[in-house]
Amino acid sequence: MKIYDWPTGPYPARVRIALAEKQMLSRIEFVRINLWKGEHKTTDFRSRNYSGTVPVLELDDGTFLAECTAITVYLDTLDGNPTLTGRTPLEKGVIQMMTKRAEIEMLDAISVYFHHATAGLGPEVELYQNREWGLYQRDKALGGMHYFDAVLRKQPFIAGDAFSMADIAVIGGFIFAAIVDLPIPQECKALLAWYARMQERPGVREQLAIIARPI
Ligand SMILES: N[C@@H](CCC(=O)N[C@@H](CS(=O)(=O)O)C(=O)NCC(=O)O)C(=O)O
Question: Does the ipTM surpass 0.95?
């Protein structure tokens, strides 16, 4: 299997962490797509993912799978032993809900701030920007951080009692927050303590170390 991505990106990190947690990294050939050069917006790349984003998983039969959540569900259930996306109908539902909420309320919001209210990937790539919308989404992300802090005051993980794809999505939010220098509010003590615990997981620690290295 191949994954098209940019190695230090927050969304690619979600899939890379899932692969590390499943001990599947060695099964993947990573193909670098240079976002800063707009390689993800070419017609050729869009033939792999209409949305023009990374990561994209290419199966050995030529099937393309985009969207971090979809890719993670596929990889997690491939071995018949889902450990990240839920075993029971309720677990699956809660993990999907909290993963989507992590995107809406934090990760995607920070991404919009990055692309609309900062230089983003540069003027050759950011062909449309709306600074007001970007700033609005930055404030939304700060609200999301407080929400997840409140969640983690009541339970050890984002979707309940076990580590899941939802935790990985919030880790992606932390990664993007660091990229745009958006600090986690210091009063979000449960969220900050959770992030410290997440970094004790080998798969998470390894991927964060890769992201910290200059490309
Ligand atoms: N909904 C998509 C979002 C993917 C996404 O936005 N990926 C970023 C990569 S990174 O910013 O995390 O490195 C991207 O392609 N951004 C390029 C662009 O938006 O122009 C998913 O879940 O996969």
Answer: yes
